[in-house]
Design a protein that fits this description.
This protein is mostly helical and 109 residues long. The protein has one domain: Orthogonal Bundle (Cytochrome Bc1 Complex, Chain D, domain 2), CATH 1.10.760. The protein is 61% helix and 5% strand. The protein has six helices and two strands; from the N terminus they run H-H-H-H-H-E-E-H. The protein has helices at residues 2-31, 33-36, 45-49, 58-62, 66-75, 94-106; strands spanning 77-78, 84-86. Helix 1 crosses helix 6 and helix 5 (66-75) packs across helix 6 (94-106). The longest helix has 30 residues, at 2-31. The protein starts with a helix and ends with a helix.
Length: 109
């Protein structure tokens, strides 16, 4: 009986991880690719217009902490003149944002 319970819990846990991975990719596509592109390189029309950094570049990724990325997604980013560069996330929970930050880290080459 214990083995059945443990196996069931492990299976459910694996299903949640798989669902979560799918969810973050869906969120990335819906919320981020217009500017950052599917690969995070920023080679989109909007990304080039905004001079977005290449999130797949190891040096760029080393230049910010997860907490900074979380804050940028949650609150948005403004340039030195106060002009909005990236809008704050809408409809994303803190867990969704944490998953996005983890996803960004997977883009590093």
């Amino acid at each position: 009986m214990k083995k059945t319970i443990i196996l069931t819990i492990a299976t459910l846990g694996a299903a949640l991880v798989i669902a979560s991975a799918g969810d973050v990719k869906e969120t990335w596509e819906k919320s981020c690719t217009k500017c950052h592109g599917p690969d995070g390189k920023g080679q989109t029309k909007m990304g080039q217009k905004l001079n977005i950094k290449d999130l797949s570049d190891a040096k760029v990724q080393d230049g910010f902490k997860d907490e900074e990325a979380f804050k940028a997604i949650k609150e948005g980013l403004k340039d030195k003149e106060g002009k909005t560069q990236m809008k704050a996330s809408e409809g994303l929970s803190d867990d969704d944002i944490k998953a996005l930050v983890k996803h960004v880290r997977t883009l590093k080459k």
